[in-house]
Amino acid sequence: MMVQKRSLSSRLKPYAAGVIALIIVIWAFSGIEFKGMKDSAGQILGAIFAGLFNPDWSYVYSGHGEDLISALFETLAIAFLGTIISSFIAVPFAFWAAKTSKKFSVRSTTGKFLLTLIRVFPELVLAIMFIKAVGPGAFAGVLAMGVHSIGMMGKLFSEAIENIDRGPEEAIISAGGNRLDALSWATLPAVLPEFINFTLYRFEIAVRSASILGIVGAGGVGAPLIFALSNRSWSRVGIILIGIILMVTVIDWLSGAIRKHLLK
Amino acid sequence: MNKSIPKRPFMKEWHVTGFTVFLLLFIAVVLSAQATQVGQDFSMEQFADLWIKMANPDWSYLPRVLTPLAQTVQMAIVGTLIGGIAAIPFAFLAASNIVRNAFVRGIIRFVMNLIRSIPQMLLAALFVAVVGIGTLSGVLALAVFSFGMMFKLLYEAIETVDQGPIEAMRAAGGKRSQVIVFAVIPQVLNQYLSFFLYTLEINVRASAVLGYLGAGGIGLYLNTTLDTFRYDQTSVVILAILVVIVLVDALSNKLREALS
After folding, report:
1. Where are the domains of chain A?
2. What superfamily would CATH give domain A54-262?
């Protein structure tokens, strides 16, 4: 019995892909300067680790607002408010972008494009722009977070809308209900758990990004960290890093537990 | 027959859970609003001025940003590659169907969880402080981030492979290395490549702003144009970033579809 030989092009395909990948990788490495490392790099790395193990405990709580606890609280507040705001604004965007029929629809295409635009616009740039408007501080961070999160939540929400069972909606319409009835009695109850799930998920991400907004002066724990880094006070860097890691871990765990409970 | 409908329990009748959650959320909103001083004056003038300047991009600036733009993509590729390859052995060590020792798995997962909880930009800030300004610190930050992320995706993929081939290999007396090479890797290879592309997408986005901290790439130009109030140049930088991100996303999506 003869084994059917695959055509030449289909046999060559994996090799061609490999060669292209190799060329891309070589090109990528050509752009990186691997020298230029500071002589003191090892020393500083050691100092950071020493700081992690001998953190500056006095910074944790000082009682007059310039401490780690209040910086972390501010970070959480930025993430929380930003996420809450955009979870509401994202809903109309989600209905705009949801592709609910097989045919090409101008509505859904423009909506999806707009959401992509919002999503890929760098959050830090947004924060800088809002700082120009409201001045440096946590408020600018809240605004940046609130606008930026719409992109991702709008996308996730619209996918949730696309995936629901359309039966209940049609039942309400055919029983004489109008579209508002269908929306409030069939669509929203079906998508709400998903919306809450995605909002919590986005909150986890928001906590991470809120902790870096301080780099541009938009509030949160990022600013004291940058100060400590440039002042080379490594024990301060250590305690702030520990604080951030702890905060992120606790929030991930909490949010994960709530999401598991919700989706049961 | 008792005609009255059964009474709902107190908790449900008055929606205690719902109201409590709502109240807690409301208190959290108020507290957060106080902490972040929401409601400062919003200077529409300044904000509009910014957008008007940005709406007239200075296209003559474009040639200057092309090299750093390419560098941004290069950093993302190298970072993802280093992190993605380094993650492979650890992912195998953390998978319960490869390593039976729960203690080893627990330790590795714990350390990796810690690494994953550090935001990318913080890694970049740390690496800039350690190795100095330049693309190397950006690559290292992206590599550490990819390491944590690829590790998680990969070990979960390894744990959910079809157990049949593994059992067959073991029953036939295969060593652990043989089980990995002949039973596990063929099952997860495509997923691994797909995770790689997904991580690359995220890294391109991150890489575009890393330069703001001095970690190489186009972010530096974001910083300088904003600092010198040349918003017409800023918008060129942002548009260039957007085009690259959209292109990389589209390409990566196509490849991932082909892989699955």
Report:
1. 54-262
2. MetI-like (1.10.3720.10)
